[in-house]
């Protein structure tokens, strides 16, 4: 047992027991260097001798090589690759350089690793120990963090050790942490006594224990460096004692006492990232160092030579490397570059050559560029960015240097490091770039701005894209078209918050440039026509684009590039069919290719689509997937607020609905996402209407219509007609109805025409109103818009009651109440219930469904199983393992008192 670690060991033993029982566990051991994290991990592995144990340790010198740590962790499990789905197997094989093929999305690699570990664990519980996590390469770290957030019922344990004070492991935030503190005083004294052979003065012992704060490494190594007289109290201790951040200096002084050959040998060993003893020995030989040069360091227990070179502690390695002069480090890298000859180690050789170079050298820079290309082929874009940035530093030609910095920024952005991309872009003198690269730089800066987020980020990027379009127009017309389309895409998201231009100006540019017959041209022309010539004129152009994107032969990449503009504009046209078809196909493509950043946006847009139709349960299921994905692609807190779906909140009407809507509005406005900010106001209109606060609803809806920039609030017009009519503001209601009439008749879609009849009925004389309501119900009933059908029944019932037709009113209101209760819309259900009470009918509130006992994730899994998906299909859709799906389904069956998935359709 470890001295003084009973509490930590008990916690770790409990975690191992859970893994042994088939449940998954994650623990992050966090503490300062030398505090005993690795010893606790070793002890955990000892507790798991009946489990399969996989281990890997981060190596600072290896952190630039993509998927290096992950490959070392999983290389022995290569036989299990055959059991992975084809896309996952191909992605993981490409990441590890085991097969040729396109670079895989890192999230698809992450899902592949989750599936692989679950497959391995199906043969018995599995423990993965990841030491010195702060020094993993970024690709490996992100994958393991993804897996750690998704394991549940597979029998997988993940133990990470992380040094405090490191900033590169934020992706582990939120995982269970077991802090590793210094030893209690008595245990620190006992450890000190156990490592001191001679006399130990009690006062001196207390002084050492206090100064080291109970750090076991500091206690052990400090005691070995003090003289017998100092330990016995005959001489004063040195001041200050070499502990904490000074421990590295202590090792450096110890190393300085070795003979010069030993110091040079240690530097070569510290420079070789894998501890490859063959390379270390060969490199030492090129410098004339004899094999016995390592002996003094080995006798001092600073290194161990047993197949590989292992340092006593990472602090020893960093002391050796950090304590050398730059010329000494370059010599070590040069020696290793000379002997690192294996084909598989070409990237390491390139890095050694680069690290050995002091002056620009095109041959070395070109070697790094080739390494960067190899990294990209494996999906290692973080490594590509690093290689290219260093290549740029070594490039003699200033124009080529600027081009390589631009390529590095592109790679950094792809790797999910927008702040690094910004720094690289700032280092480029635009005058050194040609027009094409200048335009690309502007586009990259815009994308990086949105990815970093921050105040008004979305609002500012439109102007950047428009500038890129202007720069590219003469030199690269196709790229100019892409830049202009990007400006339109971002403008449709920024809406009224757009800075540096306005919709009409942007629309005029789009209309003038959209002269081709591509999908991009048609969408640009449709947008330009919408904002310059109006709603009715834009419809034929937009419908043509919709037909093109609905074509099953359309290239998948083109679909993903254009879908958001199509979804946005089809919403303006009440074209729910094309919107759903595009969203469904995009979700399928994004899932299959592992494009999680795209998938989260698709699913969120789909949840909004379902909400506008009133299919709130379907929206809930999609939002659960969005939450799962948001935790995978971790974003700023403001983005969590944006992705909470304000309209869904309004329909569900929880007690804190107004507070949620205000938070979403504030966060969206701060980020410059005008569309999301306005969505919270649309939600507020819905909330006020449900509560019968008609004047308040009319004020909010009217303000939205007033700030409209591109026909985005057509669907709010029926709400404004209802709110204004019920608030007694007939002029406002008639003005809104006139606008709605123009747009709905131009659209011609059944959904729009049904809403138009419903709105006309509100202002029609009694002789005409009943027929209009019935026409609205008939037309809307043929659509998927169940929410609007329910509201039509409610409005019809309210009108019938006011006409003293109580029997007819009760029938309509009962239908509305049942529909609202089925939807889970308590605000509108209460409004219908109050109207029924006014007719003299007594109602009671529906009790909770049996399904309400399910957690959101259980409900989603149950719904997917009900719809016929297999466990592996559900796992792939929700980015969890098959074992976790099986676990949750068993809980669902128990809660719902059923025995098979065939019964789910009956109870859900």
Automatic annotation (TrEMBL):
Keywords: ATP-binding, Nucleotide-binding. Residues 847-908 form the HTH luxR-type domain. CDD domains: LuxR_C_like (cd06170). SMART domains: HTH_LUXR. Pfam families: AAA_16, GerE. InterPro entries: AAA_16 (IPR041664), P-loop_NTPase (IPR027417), Sig_transdc_resp-reg_C-effctor (IPR016032), Tscrpt_reg_LuxR_C (IPR000792), WH-like_DNA-bd_sf (IPR036388). PANTHER family: TESTICULAR SOLUBLE ADENYLYL CYCLASE (PTHR16305), TRANSCRIPTIONAL ACTIVATOR DOMAIN (PTHR16305:SF35). This is Transcriptional regulator.
